Amino acid sequence: MAVLLWVSALSLLVWLWLAVGHGFFWRTDQRLPARRDPGRWPRVAVVVPARDEAGVLPDSLPTLLAQDYPGEARVILVDDHSSDGTGELAAALADGPDGGGLPLTVTTPPPLPEGWTGKLWALRHGVELAGDAQWLLLTDADIAHGPTSLRELVAAAEGNGLDLVSQMARLRVRTGWERLIVPAFVYFFAQLYPFRWSNRPGGRTAAAAGGCSLVRRTALERIGGVAAIRGAVIDDVSLARAVKRSGGRTWLGLAEQVDSVRPYPGLGPLWRMVSRSAYAQLRHSVVLLAGTVLGLSLVYLVPPAALAVGLAAGWWGPAVLGGAAWAVMAGTYLPMLRYYRQPAWAAVLLPFTALLYLLMTVDSAVQHWRGRGAAWKGRTYPRPAEPARHERRA
Q: Are 152 and 222 contained in the same domain?
C-alpha cells in the first residue's frame, strides 16, 4: 500500500504542476493573433507536396484555388511520383467549374536523392518554382482551407512581424476511433510543445504544424532553405526550430478554418499515423523511450489504477489521490474535447487513449530496430540523416 500511496501522490503532484506550470498547454485559446491588412499585399506561393493523394484532392485543392486573396498568389502542386494519377487529377480540378481563381502549376521533382525525405524534396522543388514570392504557404494535400484562410494568415504574419505562422489543422473526427484518438493527438502535441512557450520570442520551445505553415521567404533563405532540414522526419518542428534559432519569430495555434479531409476509418491507419514518427520524436534514443514509457505510465495510467486498486482493497489514500489526479487530467482535456465538439464524458477515457499512444510509441521503436524506420507512402527512412543529427545537437 505504501508504494501505491506514494506513487499516486507523485502522479497528483505532477498533474497539478502540468495544469498550472506547463505553459497552460491544455488551453485552446491560441488562435491567429490580431490581423491587420498590409498597405500592399505581398506575393504568395502555395506549395502542396502530393504523393498518391487522388482520394483527397477533390475536397482540398479547390479550396486553395478559390482563395479570396487581394494580392498576387499562385498554387504549385508537386506531384511526388504518384501512381494514382494525382497530377492529372489536380490539373483537371483546376480546369473544372470549381477550379477557382488562383493559377495552378503541376510539376514533378527529379528522383529522390539520398539523405532527403520525400516530402521535403518535393517542397524544395516547389519553392524553387515559386519565383519572387515573398511568402510561401506550405500546406499538405489533405488540408482544406476556408475562403479567407490565406488572407488571414498573411495579415497575421505581416501585422505582427512574424516569420513563420502555423496552424494545426482540425483533423477529422467522424468514426469512433477518430473521436477517441484524434483530440488526444493534438492534446499530447500541445503538452509536448506548449503553444504559449513556442510563441514566446526568444524561448527555447519551437514547433509548427506541417499541414499549414506560412513562412517568410527571407527567413527560409536565412536558414539555408529546405535543404537545412532535408533529412528530418518531423519536418514541421525542425523548420520552426531552425527559423527561431536564426532569430526569426514563430507562431503556432489551433485552426479556425483549416481542416484535414483525410479519413482514418479504423485503428490501423491512426496507429500508423502516430507510430511512423513517434520514435523519431524521441531522437531514436532508448533512454528517452524508457523515460517516455515510465512518464506516460506515471501520469496517465497510475491514477485510474490507484483508484481501482484502492477501492477494491479499501485503501482510501491511494483511491482519493488517484481519483483526484484523474479528475485534474480529465479537466485539462475538456477544452480540447470542446474544440473538437466531442462530449465531456469522453475525458474519462484519456488514460485508455494514453495507453494506446504508449503502445504506438513502443511499436515505432520496434519498427526502427527492425530496419523499417519511418514508413510513409511506400518509402522508408530507416535511420536519421545528417541534418536530423545536427538538429539534435542544437
A: yes
Q: What percent of the chain has pLDDT over 90?
A: 85
Kindly list the distances between the CA atom of residue 6 and the CA atoms of 258, 325, 355, in Å, as whole numbers in the listed order. 44, 13, 22
Mean pLDDT within 95-114 = 88
Rounded Cα–Cα distance for residues 201 and 220 (Å): 18
| Those residues with Cβ within 8 angstroms of residue 255's Cβ, 6 or more apart along the chain or in another chain | 167, 168, 169, 170, 212
d(CA 210, CA 188): 16
Residue 34 belongs to a domain? no
What are the pLDDT digits (tens) for 289-332?
Answer: 999 999 999 999 999 999 999 999 999 999 999 999 999 999 99
User: pLDDT value at position 373?
Assistant: 63
Give the integer Cα–Cα distance in Å for 10 and 20: 16
| Encoded amino acid at 215, one letter | V
In the chain, which ranges are E strands?
44-50, 73-79, 104-107, 135-139, 143-145, 164-170, 212-216, 250-260, 374-376, 379-381
Strand pairing class (73-79; 44-50): parallel
Q: At what angle do helices 286-296 and 350-369 cross, to 10 degrees?
A: 160
Tell me the CB-side half-sphere exposure of residue 353, using CA atoms within 13 A. Answer: 23
Do 13 and 83 share a structural domain?
no
CATH classification of the domain holding 206:
3.90.550.10
pLDDT tens readout for residues 357-384 = 999 999 999 988 887 766 566 666 555 4
Q: How far apart are CA 266 and CA 274, in angstroms?
A: 13
Final residue before a domain boundary, out of 265, 296, 315: 265
What domain range is 13 assigned to?
Answer: 2-25+271-393
CA–CA separation, 107 vs 181, rounded Å?
35
Contact 298, 7 (CB under 8 A): yes
Q: In the structure grid, which three cell numbers stand for residue 207, read together? A: 514547433
Q: How confident is the model over 197-206, as pLDDT tens digits?
A: 999 998 999 9
Are β-strands 164-170 and 212-216 bridged in parallel, bridged antiparallel, or unpaired? antiparallel
Confidence band of 57 (pLDDT split at 50, 70, 90) = very high
Phi, psi of 370 (to 5 degrees): -85, 0
User: Structurally, how many domains does the chain consist of?
Assistant: 2
